[in-house]
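Quick note —
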Amino acid sequence: MKLAILTGGGDCPGMNAFIRSVARSAWNLLPECEVWGVLDGWRGLLEKSYRRLEPVDTAGISALGGTILGTLRMPSLRTNAEERRAIAENFIAGEFDALCVCGGNGSLAAACDLNDTLHTFDQHRPVLFTAASIDNDVANIYGTSLGFYSAIDRSLEMLGWIRDTASAHRRVYIIGSMGRRSAWLPFYAGIAAGAEYVIRPDEHVDFEAIADMIDTRERDTRIIVSEAYPKTLEEIKAIVENALERRRSEHEIRTVDMGYFQRGGGASVSDVLRADWLGFHMVRGLLEEECASSLFGAFNIGTPPNRVPLAEALRPEANYDDIPREVVEMALALR
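Predicted structure written out below.
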């Protein structure tokens, strides 16, 4: 068997652990398997850029950030049918028997397109996919994206620094977070860090209630703002300042965007373990006589991964951006 591994979309922690898991599992479970890395994501398949991997290439990479294979975004794949067809033709010409992919929503769509195009050539070569996104916004009803818990770890470190300064100076900090349309990263980071409030993307915010909360606090307040919330950090700051002025309450308010630093760094233990689990199950799936192209998702290790058709994973209903109400209620109770 000739197996290819591709890391698509933006880089995130956990991708290297996935590469290692797929490669090592393939060498141990599939006799005489060749493992090839596709360089720079989907562009590598378009430009026939691959390299054969050996065990030494995967030594000690599990916790490393980024991806040893590289990744470049290719938004043109959404509209360029010729590129999609060329990728399928190159995959066949490269004599690859299967492809294992980890990436975001764009890569999931590209994997589904590749599978469909291969079928038009009467080629049934499995395309196996797992989600990798710090935003946890890829088919998240089936599992947590690789990179999500690593980004929470990075956020906790920064939120700790911010709290030290906020507490020393009795300040209010309004803090921007990555997350795209999803509330998961800012909200879970806020819960873990003990932040006083997290503004979700589509939330109708009661700024008067937030001003009341700030006014009752003795030392520091941290308010985290989701990336897709329509008001800027400075606009939120002005609204809160006006509300406090009406109360004749004086609080120094600062803004900071931690989004620039949430993506990078090494992988968390949770992301490494789930990458190991998913890569192993993908390769074990290839032992099946008729292995179908699928998304593999898991919330933790030790239980069989959720395995669903790629088209099913692409449905809008397969992903929810907001936080379950019970989790929001828990966060409010912990405040």
